[in-house]
C-alpha cells in the first residue's frame, strides 16, 4: 500500500500504449447473449465513447471493467494484467479478491444514478475511499477532496448530505469522488441520463474540463451525441454484442461506413 | 448424570398426552385469536371515536404486557368476580386474547395493503359496500393475511408452554411432572426437540404458501 | 394487601432484576443478531448454512422450554452450574438473537445494490463496505423492528420467574402465595411492564431519530399516542420478512 500513499500525479502509462484489452469476451444474462466474443482495446489517455442502441451491451462493458459482473468467457486485461483471472503455474485461474483489488484500483466509475453514500456528507463521500482504500491521512484526503469539489463547483456544499443536493450536483460530487482515487481509467455510465435537462450542461462541462486538463483515459457510454463528438478521440458503434464500427468522431458522425451506424445516428441526432 | 434412553421411553405415554393438550390449546387459542383479532381490526376502523379509542388502548395494553402475567391474572384474579376456568381453558383464553392483538394488526395490514385504486374502481362501478368487501377487498387481503396468521400460529405454539405455569398439562407441564416424580431429566429435551420438529416444517410450509399466495 | 415491606424486600428488587435481565439478554441478543445476521450474508456458503441452521433452530424453539433445558438439564448433563439469572439471560439472548439476525439480514439486503457497486467501484473491501456503507445505511431500518423485538424480550423476561429468578413476576407470585390476595399485585405488574415497554420505546425512538438525521432523512413521527410498536419491513415477532402483521406491514 505504501506506493499508493505517495503522490501519484504522474500516471504510469500516458504514452499511448494499450491500457485496456477485451479478448473474446462473452457475457450472457439468463441465456441472452449480451456480449458475443467481443474484442477491442483502448489506448492510454484516449477518450472513447461507446454508442449504439439500448441493450447492445455498452453498459455491460463498463460493468465488466468495474468487476461488477464477471465474463462468462474470454479475458480482460488492464495495464497488461488480467482483471478477473490470474496466472498460476502457467494456467489462467479465476482471480482472488486481492488480485482483483490490485488491478481495480486503477479504475474509477461514475454511475447513472450517482450512487453517493447517503450516510455521509459530501466531503466525507469524496474523502472516504482515499482514506480507507489508499491509506491517505485525513488531512491529505481532505485537501484532495476540497480541491476536487472546488473543481466541480461545489466547494460550498461540503457539509451537506447528498439528499439535499440536486441530481446535477450529486453527479458532480460523484465525479469528484471517482477522481479522488486518481484512477487511470474513468468509466462514465450514462452519467446524464437520470438528470433533468437543465442540469445536464453543468455535468458535461465538468467532464469536458476533466478531459481537457487530465490524461485520464475515459470510457464513456452516453446518449449525448454532441458531448461525444466534443470529447472523444474514438467512437465505437455497438450492435448485437459486437463492435460493428469504430473511428474518429468526425468520421463516425460525418460519414460512417456501416448502414446500422447511419440508421442509429439519424434516429438519435 | 448421563443420558438414559429408558427414561425417554417411560416418558413417551405422558408426552403424547401433552402433545394432545398442546394441540387443543393451540387450536382453541388460534380460533379465538382469529375471530377476536378481526373484531378489533373492524372496531379500529370504526368511524366512532368512542369505539376506536377503548379498543386501541385495550389492545395496546394487552400486546405490550407479558402473556405469563396475563395468564396469572386470568387464573387467579378473574375467578374472584368472574368465571372460574380450568387451567387449559384459561390458557386457551389467554393465548387467544393475547395474540388477537397481533392478528388484528395482520388484518389491518392486509386490508390496507389493497391498493386505494381498488376501492376507487369499486366506487366507480357503483358496487354496493358489501359487494366491494366480499368480492374485491377481502379476496385480495386474504393472500397477505393467511401466511401472516400462520406465522402467528407458530408463535402461539412456541409460547404455549407458559400454560404449564398455571398447571395445564401440555407438553412442558407433562415433562416437568414426569421429571419431578421420577427424578430424571430427559423429558425436557424430548419436548424441546418436539417443538423444533413441529415448528420448523410448519414454517417451511408457510414460506411455500406465502410464495404461492403473495404474487 | 401489599405492604411496604413487600415493596422494599421483593417488588422493587424484582423490578431491578427484570431491568437487568432485559438489558443483559438484549445485549447478548444484539451481538448474536449481528454475528448471525452478517454470517447469513457471508460470501462463504458453509458460513451461510451454519448461520442459517442457527436461525432456523432457534426460531423453531420455544424460549421457555429452552430456558428450562439450560437451567435444569444442562447442569445435570454437563455438570455446569449457572449462577443467578445467567440461564435466563442465555436462553433469552440466544432465542431473541435468532429473530434479531433476521432483522439485520433483512435490513442489509434492503440496502440498494447500487450502494454495494459504488463501494466496489471505489475498491473497498467487503469489511470496509459493511462497516462504512452498508451497516450505517441499514441501521435506521433496523431500529423499528429492534424496538418491537425489545418489547417482546421485555415480556419474555417474565419467564425467568419460572426458573426461580426473583424478578418482579416472581415477587407477584410470592405475594399471592403469602397473602392469597392476587388482584392488586397482578394489576400492578401489568402496569409496570407496560410502563417499562413505553420507556424502552421512547429510548428507541430517540435512537431512530438520531440515526435518521444522520442520513439526512425526516425523523419518524412521534407522539404519545402513536402506539408502542412500529411498522417495518421485518416482523420481529414471527421472525419473518412479513407481508403483514405487527411491524410487518409496509
Description:
The complex is a heterotrimer of chains A (269), B (215) and C (250). Chain A has 269 residues and is of the alpha/beta class. Chain A has one domain (45-69, 101-267): P-loop containing nucleotide triphosphate hydrolases (Rossmann fold), CATH 3.40.50. Helix content of chain A is 36%, strand content 26%. Chain A is globular and about 50 Å long. By secondary structure, chain B is mainly α. Chain B has one domain: MetI-like (MetI-like fold, Orthogonal Bundle), CATH 1.10.3720. Chain B is built from eight helices and no strands. In chain B, helix 2 crosses helix 4. Chain C has one domain (4-229): MetI-like (MetI-like fold). Chain C is globular. By secondary structure, chain C is mainly alpha-helical. Chain C is built from eight helices and no strands. The interface between A and C is medium-sized, with 29 and 20 residues.
List the main descriptive attributes of the protein structure presented here.
heterotrimer; A: 269 residues; alpha/beta; Rossmann fold; 6-stranded mixed beta sheet; 10 helices; globular; disordered N terminus; B: 215 residues; MetI-like fold; Ectoine/hydroxyectoine ABC transporter permease subunit EhuD (chain B); amino-acid transport (chain B)
Helix content of chain A: 25-40%
- Strand numbers in spatial order across the main sheet of chain A: 8-9-10-3-11-12
Largest sheet entry of chain C = none
Instruction: Let me know the largest β-sheet of chain A.
Output: 6 strands, mixed
List the helices and strands and how they pair.
The complex is a heterotrimer of chains A (269), B (215) and C (250).
Chain A: H1 2-5, E1 18-29, E2 32-43, E3 47-51, H2 58-65, E4 73-78, E5 81-82, E6 85-88, E7 91-94, H3 97-104, E8 107-110, H4 122-132, H5 138-151, H6 167-179, E9 185-189, H7 197-213, E10 217-221, H8 225-231, E11 234-239, E12 242-247, H9 249-254, H10 259-268
Parallel strand pairs in A: 3-10, 3-11, 8-9, 9-10
Antiparallel strand pairs in A: 1-2, 1-4, 4-5, 6-7, 11-12
Chain B: H1 5-44, H2 49-63, H3 67-77, H4 87-112, H5 116-124, H6 129-159, H7 171-182, H8 186-213
Chain C: H1 4-39, H2 45-59, H3 63-78, H4 86-110, H5 113-121, H6 126-156, H7 168-179, H8 183-214
Amino acid at each position: 500500500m505504501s506506493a499508493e500513499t505517495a503522490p501519484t500525479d504522474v500516471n504510469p502509462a500516458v504514452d499511448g500504449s494499450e491500457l485496456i484489452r477485451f479478448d473474446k469476451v462473452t457475457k450472457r444474462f439468463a441465456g441472452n447473449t449480451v456480449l458475443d466474443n467481443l474484442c477491442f482495446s483502448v489506448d492510454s489517455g484516449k477518450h472513447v465513447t461507446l454508442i449504439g442502441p439500448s441493450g447492445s451491451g455498452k453498459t455491460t462493458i463498463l460493468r465488466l471493467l468495474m468487476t461488477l459482473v464477471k465474463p462468462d468467457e474470454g479475458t480482460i486485461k488492464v495495464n497488461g494484467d488480467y482483471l478477473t483471472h490470474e496466472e498460476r503455474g502457467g494456467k489462467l485461474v479465476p482471480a482472488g479478491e486481492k488480485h482483483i483489488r490490485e488491478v481495480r484500483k486503477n479504475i474509477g466509475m461514475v454511475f447513472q444514478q450517482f450512487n453517493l453514500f447517503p450516510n455521509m456528507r459530501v466531503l466525507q463521500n469524496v474523502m472516504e475511499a482515499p482514506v480507507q482504500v489508499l491509506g491517505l491521512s485525513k488531512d491529505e484526503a481532505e485537501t484532495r477532496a476540497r480541491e476536487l469539489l472546488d473543481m466541480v463547483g461545489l466547494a460550498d456544499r461540503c457539509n451537506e448530505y447528498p439528499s439535499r443536493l440536486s441530481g446535477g450536483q450529486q453527479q458532480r460530487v460523484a465525479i469528484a469522488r471517482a477522481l479522488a482515487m486518481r484512477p487511470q481509467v474513468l468509466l462514465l455510465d450514462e452519467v446524464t441520463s437520470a438528470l433533468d435537462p437543465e442540469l445536464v450542461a453543468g455535468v458535461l462541462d465538468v467532464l469536458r474540463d476533466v478531459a481537457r486538463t487530465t490524461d485520464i483515459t475515459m470510457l464513456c457510454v452516453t446518449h449525448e451525441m454532441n458531448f461525444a463528438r466534443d470529447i472523444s478521440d474514438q467512437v465505437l458503434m455497438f450492435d448485437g454484442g459486437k463492435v460493428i464500427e469504430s473511428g474518429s468522431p468526425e468520421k463516425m458522425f460525418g460519414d460512417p461506413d456501416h448502414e446500422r451506424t447511419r440508421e442509429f445516428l439519424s434516429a438519435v441526432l | 448424570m448421563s443420558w438414559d434412553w429408558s427414561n425417554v421411553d417411560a416418558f413417551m405415554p405422558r408426552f403424547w398426552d401433552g402433545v394432545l393438550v398442546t394441540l387443543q390449546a393451540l387450536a382453541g387459542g388460534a380460533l379465538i385469536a382469529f375471530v377476536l383479532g378481526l373484531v378489533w381490526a373492524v372496531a379500529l376502523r370504526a368511524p366512532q371515536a368512542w369505539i376506536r379509542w377503548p379498543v386501541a388502548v385495550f389492545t395496546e395494553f394487552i400486546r405490550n404486557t407479558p402473556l405469563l402475567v396475563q395468564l396469572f391474572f386470568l387464573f387467579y384474579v378473574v375467578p374472584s368476580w368472574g368465571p372460574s376456568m380450568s387451567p387449559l381453558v384459561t390458557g386457551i383464553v389467554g393465548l387467544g386474547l393475547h395474540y388477537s392483538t397481533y392478528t388484528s394488526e395482520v388484518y389491518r395490514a392486509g386490508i390496507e395493503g389493497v391498493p386505494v385504486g381498488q376501492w376507487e374502481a369499486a366506487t366507480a362501478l357503483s358496487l354496493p359496500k358489501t359487494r366491494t368487501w366480499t368480492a374485491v377487498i377481502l379476496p385480495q387481503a386474504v393472500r397477505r393475511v393467511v401466511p401472516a396468521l400462520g406465522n402467528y400460529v407458530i408463535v402461539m405454539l412456541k409460547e404455549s408452554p407458559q400454560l404449564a405455569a398455571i398447571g395445564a398439562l401440555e407438553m412442558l407441564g407433562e415433562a416437568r411432572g414426569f421429571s419431578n416424580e421420577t427424578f430424571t431429566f430427559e423429558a425436557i429435551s424430548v419436548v424441546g426437540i418436539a417443538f423444533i420438529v413441529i415448528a420448523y416444517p410448519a414454517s417451511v410450509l408457510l414460506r411455500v404458501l406465502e410464495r404461492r399466495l403473495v404474487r | 394487601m401489599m405492604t411496604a415491606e413487600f415493596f422494599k424486600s421483593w417488588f422493587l428488587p424484582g423490578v431491578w432484576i427484570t431491568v437487568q435481565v432485559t438489558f443483559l439478554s438484549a445485549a447478548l441478543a444484539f451481538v448474536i443478531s449481528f454475528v448471525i445476521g452478517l454470517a447469513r450474508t457471508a460470501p462463504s456458503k458453509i458460513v451461510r448454512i451454519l448461520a442459517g441452521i442457527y436461525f432456523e433452530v432457534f426460531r423453531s424453539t420455544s424460549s421457555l422450554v429452552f430456558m428450562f433445558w439450560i437451567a435444569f438439564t444442562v447442569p445435570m448433563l454437563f455438570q455446569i452450574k449457572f449462577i443467578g439469572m445467567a440461564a435466563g439471560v442465555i436462553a433469552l439472548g440466544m432465542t431473541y438473537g435468532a429473530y434479531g439476525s433476521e432483522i439485520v439480514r433483512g435490513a442489509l439486503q434492503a440496502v440498494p445494490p447500487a450502494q454495494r457497486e459504488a463501494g466496489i467501484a471505489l475498491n473497498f473491501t467487503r469489511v470496509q463496505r459493511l462497516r462504512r456503507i452498508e451497516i450505517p445505511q441499514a441501521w435506521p431500518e433496523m431500529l423499528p423492528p429492534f424496538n418491537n423485538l425489545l418489547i417482546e424480550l421485555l415480556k419474555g423476561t417474565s419467564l425467568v420467574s419460572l426458573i426461580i429468578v426473583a424478578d418482579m413476576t416472581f415477587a407477584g407470585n410470592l405475594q399471592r402465595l403469602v397473602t392469597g390476595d392476587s388482584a392488586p399485585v397482578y394489576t400492578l405488574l401489568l402496569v409496570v411492564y407496560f410502563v417499562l415497554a413505553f420507556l424502552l420505546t421512547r429510548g428507541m425512538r430517540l435512537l431512530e431519530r438520531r440515526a435518521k438525521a444522520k442520513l439526512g432523512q425526516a425523523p419518524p413521527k412521534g407522539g404519545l399516542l402513536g402506539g408502542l410498536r412500529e411498522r417495518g419491513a421485518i416482523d420481529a415477532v414471527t421472525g419473518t420478512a412479513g407481508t403483514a402483521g405487527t411491524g410487518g406491514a409496509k
